[in-house]
Amino acid sequence: MEAFTVLTGTAVPLRESNVDTDQIIPAVYLKRITRTGYEDALFAAWRGDPEFALNHPARAGATILVAGPDFGTGSSREHAVWALLDHGFRVVISSRFADIFRGNSGKGGLVTAVVDQDVVEQLWTATESDPSTPITVDLVDRTVSFAGVVAPFEIDDYVRWRLLEGLDDVGLTLQSAHLIEGFEQARPEFTPRTA
Amino acid sequence: MGRTLAEKVWDHHVVRSAPGEPDLLYIDLHLIHEVTSPQAFDGLRAAGRQVRRPDLTLATEDHNVPTIDIDKPIADPVSRAQVDALRANAEEFGVPIHSLGSTEQGIVHVVGPQLGLTHPGMTIVCGDSHTSTHGAFGALAFGIGTSEVEHVLATQTLPLKPFKTMAITVEGQLPEGVTAKDLILAVIAKIGTGGGQGYVLEYRGEAIRALSMEGRMTICNMSIEAGARAGMIAPDETTFAYIEGRPMAPEGKLWADAVAHWRTLVTDDDAEFDAEVVVDASALSPFVTWGTNPGQGVPLSASVPDPEEFTDTAQQAAARKALDYMGLTAGTPMREISVDTVFLGSCTNGRIEDLRSAAEVLRGRRVADGVRMLVVPGSVRVRLAAMAEGLDRVFIDAGAEWREAGCSMCLAMNADTLAHQERSASTSNRNFEGRQGPGGRTHLVSPQVAAATAVRGTLGSPADLI
């Protein structure tokens, strides 16, 4: 996983609440068996609308998505995170994220920054009036800065540490292999087996 | 201070705990399917790792599989490649698999409980958000992403931050004709699609205790639609009776040991929840959705709401957008909305009791002209049980299509989909835009309402049929 410290980039405003993972990537794109190559699938149902924010030429190369509350609800598909990353996003800013989506984001290296809804509104206003507005997301300080505003964001301490270090979860856990073995030896005999 | 059910199950599974870090939790059962696992197996291969406990892992094919002509190769080459990848991965890593054509194949959340693999007090995960279904047994069960699937395959553990706990107490009795599905849709409408975020829900109270295991599974299944990763119901005699005698259930002394342990899995009287919600079951009636998220629901007797009536501007905007997508006008009585398709099935309502209750409504009646009804059992076992009772004949005689087991029209990943602007009454769990097919319009309903709607051609309950 690529480490993340500070990013300055432009944003795409997504003035929608409850953007579920079926909207982020429709199920039909989940049939692929690869981990990359989902760029075309991102918000596929909305991409046909020329007015959709992502389609605007001035938004090309944006790395930050600013969304309404309850972003990423619904299905657990990690493809939603992969599609956002493949499109070039490294950060999603919202006032509230669904749990599974947020967990998946941390695994894949996508920063989910929680700010107050009024900060979201200010970001929308700033980037809508000038799409080239630079926005800086600083994971070290946990701040988002734009147009003279510096606002704190919330992210889990442990997830932040892993993102800053770019660490792989499985490798970390396997350092505790002896504890897992000890736990397995003490499991009750009545727990079922699949074979 | 006492502990809640969720806290007890959590505590029983902590492998490692350190300040400032997530707990490392042992996973008792890992269910996998074709959609969210291929990239996880690829990750194992790339790192030269094995599946740590194939004997605690079970694969089944459900999301992609066709529900007709299952003896022929899967027509869609991309779906076929995904199913083939699962079979190859299961073989390479020694994971048991129930493939299409096997009598144990079916939707992953129907298969686990029916095999007797789902027990109280277990930790169960699957790369599917409806893993919350298994919480009906008093298991801590939740959906995970593909990176976590890889993590569990490699280590049989997951690093997790403790959840908060929320009690959903359902007092009183459900009126005649009101089902578990109506209850959970009403709960989601009450607390909202984000109301359960960060929580494990524990459903309690008289109305919950009175439910069958299948009704309890319907309730816990939809916890995720309220934003909660898991829902739980404390095990009781109903739970034990359901598990006893199933193929993978413990026997003899092990059964006695297991039940003795399971009886301890209740929330202590002096335990405190982080949040509590109380619902009066006796005030409920059949419930249906009008919008594009499962929280946008009303009683069947109500009308399509006016977006301006919502107090919150975000909700107003969401409602306007939903009505536009759904092609509905505020003020239209729900009972006057006509549908093109009725879907009976899914991990929410694809079990034998669901099929029985719908068949009861359809017996001696006909599906309305111009309406297609798909009946898709949740598993091959459910299908065989229904056929042994003659339910297939009831559905076929009524003009419905009797299909093979799978996820089918719950999500548009197989051949069963809605066309653009086609409208369905569906016993599944999500009415998101395009969920059942691009441009498709979904109303979530109970099996009884689905059957009555099929007969009427418009949304309705069995009580509306003369």
Written overview of the protein:
- The complex is a heterodimer of chains A (195) and B (466).
- Chain A is α/β, with parallel strands linked by helices and 195 residues long.
- Chain A has helices at residues 21-24, 44-47, 79-87, 99-108, 117-129, 157-165, 169-174, 177-185, and strands at residues 6-9, 11-14, 64-67, 91-94, 111-114, 135-138, 143-146, 149-152.
- Chain A is built from eight helices and eight strands, in the order E-E-H-H-E-H-E-H-E-H-E-E-E-H-H-H.
- In chain A, helix 4 links the parallel strand 4 (91-94) and strand 5.
- The longest helix of chain A has 13 residues, at 117-129.
- The radius of gyration of chain A is 19 Å and the shape is globular.
- Chain A starts with 5 loop residues before the first strand and ends in a 10-residue tail after the last helix.
- The mean pLDDT of chain A is 95.
- By secondary structure, chain B is of the alpha/beta class.
- Chain B has helices at residues 5-12, 38-47, 77-93, 108-115, 146-155, 180-191, 206-209, 213-221, 237-243, 252-262, 313-326, 346-349, 352-362, 380-388, 391-398, 447-456; strands at residues 14-16, 23-26, 29-32, 57-60, 97-98, 123-126, 140-143, 157-160, 164-171, 199-204, 230-232, 275-280, 287-289, 297-299, 341-344, 372-375, 401-402, 423-426, 441-444.
- In chain B, the strands form five sheets. Chain B has a five-stranded parallel β-sheet with strand order 5-4-3-6-7, with helices on both faces. Chain B has a five-stranded parallel β-sheet with strand order 17-16-15-18-19, covered by helices on one side. A four-stranded parallel β-sheet of chain B has the order 11-10-9-12.
- The mean pLDDT of chain B is 97.
